[in-house]
Design brief:
Largest sheet: 6 strands, antiparallel
Distance between the termini: 51 Å
Strand content: 25-35%
Strand order of the largest sheet: 2-1-11-10-7-8
Structural class: alpha+beta
Number of strands: 21
Length: 437
C-alpha cells in the first residue's frame, strides 16, 4: 500500500512524492523542508503531512495565509484519497493506492479499508470491526492474512488492568507513558525481579507486522552494556506486546532533576551524561541509533561506586513507528519527546544518524542542570513542531548562569541544528564533558 502526493498546480507542478511506510513531509519556503517552494504566499514551514499508509493527517504549522483541504481552511485534518490541498499558489492531491490483495473500488473521498478473506472481529470480545478499519501490514505483503484488532472497550480494559503475562507475576505499576505501561514483576520460575513493559498497537495489525516488529526488537535486544537496560525476553498476549527487562530500582532522570530543581551539581550531571554516552557509543558501533533519548528514558540505579545511568527502551519507538503500529504520532501529542528531538528527525525521518542521539543527550543534560526545556513555551500553547523546525535553543547560561562556560559551549555545540556542526560521535562528546566531571 502506498500514499502518493501529486502537485497539480504551482512552481512544483508535475512532481509526485511516494510513501510506502511511516514518514513525515513538510511543505514551505524554507530550503530545509521536503518540498521547498519559492512562493511568497507560503510560510517558511507551511504545513506538515504525517503518513502511515493508508492513514494521512495534515497539520497547518501556524502559517500566515492558511492551508485548505477541499477549499476549507483547516488547522488539522485527516486526509482521504482524492482530497485536494491548497497552500499559496500550489495545489496538491492525495492518492491512496490499495494493497495488491484489495480489489474493491472505493469513492475518492471515502475512508480506506483493507478487505481480508475473513471478517475482522475484536480478538477480545468478538465484536465486528468497522468497515473503514485501518490495518498495518508492516510494509510486508500478505494483506489477506489474519488481523489482530482490539475494540475500544477491550483496549480500555487492558490499559486499566495489568494483563496476565506467561510466567510473570505483576507486583506494582512503575509508570505510564506514550509507549505503554511498565510494571515491577517477578519471574515465577526463577524468582528474578524484572520491569515488565506492556504496549498495545494503536492500529489493527497483520501477523506480518507483528512478526516484523518482534524480529527487529529481537536484534536490538542483543545489546549488552552496563549503561543500557538489558532486555530478557518478549512476547505478545491479549493484543499487547510485552517485554521483560532489567529492573532498575532508582528513579528516572526526569524525577532526579525535579528533586532539587535547577541546582543539580554540574559534576554529577556530567558524570551521568558520560555514562549515557558510553552506552550510546557501544550501540552506535553496532549500527543502532536510539532516536528517543530523553530524561524519562534514562534510569538511575545505585551501585557501591555511586549512581549509574542506564538507557531504556533502546530502538523501541523507532521500530514501533517504522512498522506502522503507532498510528499517527507527530500530528498527535508529543510534548514529552519533541523538546529533546533533533530537527533532522522531523525532516529526515528515515535516515537519522548517531548525531541525533548526541543532540538528545545534550538536551537531556540541559534539563538535568536547569529543569527546563531548551525551548520556551513548551508547556504552553505553542506549536511544538514549528518550534522544533524554526526556533533556536535558549542558551543554557540564560537558564543557569553558574554552569561553567566551557560546559555551556559543549552543550551548545551538540544542540546545533545542523548535525555536521555537532561533535562527530559519542566518544568525542564524552571526552569533551570529562573535564567537568
Amino acid at each position: 500500500m502506498r500514499v502518493i502526493l501529486e502537485v497539480l498546480k504551482g512552481p512544483r507542478s508535475g512532481r509526485t512524492f511516494v510513501f510506502d511506510r511511516h514518514d513525515t513531509f513538510i511543505v514551505g519556503r524554507s530550503q530545509f523542508v521536503h518540498c521547498p517552494i519559492n512562493d511568497a504566499a507560503l510560510s517558511r514551514d507551511h504545513f506538515l503531512i504525517e503518513i502511515n499508509p493508508p492513514r494521512c493527517e495534515l497539520r497547518d504549522l501556524e502559517s500566515t495565509n492558511g492551508t485548505f483541504v477541499n477549499s476549507e481552511r483547516i488547522e488539522r485534518a485527516r486526509l482521504a484519497s482524492g482530497d485536494l490541498i491548497a497552500a499559496g499558489k500550489s495545489l496538491f492531491r492525495i492518492v491512496v493506492e490499495p494493497g495488491r490483495a484489495s480489489q474493491k473500488p472505493r469513492s475518492p473521498s471515502s475512508s480506506v479499508a483493507i478487505p481480508t478473506r475473513e471478517p475482522i472481529v475484536c480478538t477480545g470480545c468478538g465484536c465486528p470491526a468497522p468497515m473503514n478499519l485501518t490495518v498495518s501490514s508492516g510494509g510486508v505483503s500478505g494483506l489477506d492474512e489474519p488481523v489482530e484488532w482490539w475494540c475500544t472497550a477491550c483496549r480500555t480494559e487492558a490499559a486499566a488492568v495489568p494483563q496476565p503475562v506467561p510466567h510473570y507475576a505483576t507486583i506494582r505499576e512503575l509508570g505510564r507513558g506514550a509507549m505503554g505501561v511498565v510494571y515491577q514483576a517477578r519471574n515465577i520460575t526463577s524468582g528474578k525481579m524484572v520491569a515488565l513493559k506492556l504496549i498495545t498497537p494503536e492500529v489493527a495489525t497483520t501477523r506480518a507486522a507483528i512478526e516484523r516488529f518482534q524480529r527487529e526488537m529481537s536484534v536490538i535486544s542483543q545489546l549488552r552494556h552496563p549503561n543500557i537496560v538489558e532486555w530478557y525476553e518478549q512476547g505478545m498476549t491479549r493484543g499487547q506486546f510485552w517485554f521483560a527487562m532489567e529492573y532498575v530500582a532508582g528513579p528516572n532522570l526526569e524525577a532526579l532533576a525535579k528533586m532539587d530543581p535547577g541546582r543539580y551539581p554540574t559534576d554529577q550531571a556530567c558524570r551521568l551524561a558520560c555514562q549515557i554516552l558510553k552506552g550510546l557509543e557501544h550501540a552506535h558501533t553496532g549500527g543502532f541509533v536510539h532516536r528517543d533519548i530523553k530524561p524519562e528514558n534514562i534510569l538511575i540505579g545505585q551501585t557501591p561506586e555511586g549512581s549509574v545511568a542506564k538507557i531504556s527502551d533502546f530502538g523501541l519507538a523507532k521500530s514501533f513507528r517504522s512498522v506502522g503500529l503507532s498510528g499517527l504520532t507527530f500530528s498527535g501529542e508529543m510534548r514529552g519527546t519533541i523538546p529533546f528531538m533533533p530537527p533532522e528527525q522531523m525532516t529526515e525521518f528515515k535516515t537519522v544518524r548517531p548525531q541525533a542521539d548526541l543532540y538528545a543527550t545534550a538536551a537531556t543534560l540541559y534539563y538535568l542542570l536547569t529543569t527546563q526545556f531548551i525551548y520556551d513555551d513548551v508547556e504552553g500553547g505553542g506549536d511544538l513542531i514549528k518550534m522544533l523546525l524554526e526556533d533556536h535553543p535558549i542558551p543554557i547560561l540564560d537558564r543557569r548562569p553558574d554552569v561553567p562556560r566551557g560546559l555551556a559551549a559543549v552543550v551548545g555545540r551538540c544542540l546545533a541544528r545542523n548535525p555536521d556542526e555537532r561533535l562527530p560521535d559519542a566518544g568525542s562528546m564524552r571526552r569533551a564533558l570529562k573535564p567537568f566531571c
